[in-house]
């Protein structure tokens, strides 16, 4: 809605009120922080020496301030792909990150999720 205003010099000006946006902004203010639910898995059953895809699915978190890293022995695996950030009902968000990998014995694969400045590792368990 546009409303005419008068400036101190008397020149006309307008003020814009986004009436349609106010209800959704009020609802968003009531959302409380929610810790992410994390699932780490592989596309196929894990077998040493066999190429696979490591997947980290993070859901049900708020606010959307989050980073996801896929790790091999504590070092980030390059060339990971990530979905676009999407939201669910109640302003909870979800995101998935994945990368091709070939698991080897005595190597640890993990998903590091940092939400609101707090990081935690979630280790992938091979199906062997």
From TrEMBL:
Cellular component, GO, one term: MHC class I protein complex
Organism from which the protein derives: Astyanax mexicanus
One of the GO biological process terms: response to metal ion
Subcellular location: Secreted
Every Ig-like domain range: 36-115
SMART domains: IGc1
Entry protein name: Beta-2-microglobulin
Record keywords, A-Z: Immunity, Immunoglobulin domain, MHC I, Secreted
PROSITE patterns according to UniProt: IG_LIKE, IG_MHC
Family from the record: Belongs to the beta-2-microglobulin family.
InterPro entries to which the protein is assigned, alphabetical: Ig-like_dom, Ig-like_dom_sf, Ig-like_fold, Ig/MHC_CS, Ig_C1-set, MHC/Immunoglobulin
Short name of one Pfam family: C1-set
Major location category of this protein: secreted
